[in-house]
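Re-run with default settings, no changes from the original entry. Doing this only to confirm the output is reproducible before filing.
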Amino acid sequence: MSIVDKIKDMLGKHPDQVKQAVDKAGDMIDKQTGGKYADKVDKAQEKANEFIDKSTEEKG
């Protein structure tokens, strides 16, 4: 099983945990960059969460 397959499997079983990980990663990036790219990080988080929602809707 490839890493991509493992991620897809986790996404299908635990979407809330994946969303939390996305939020934590974004917060860490903001902290490391002093918020310099906060607007871009926020957009990336939104897109990731939309993808997670779309992926879980397709499975359910």
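The mean pLDDT is 88. The chain has one domain: 3-59.
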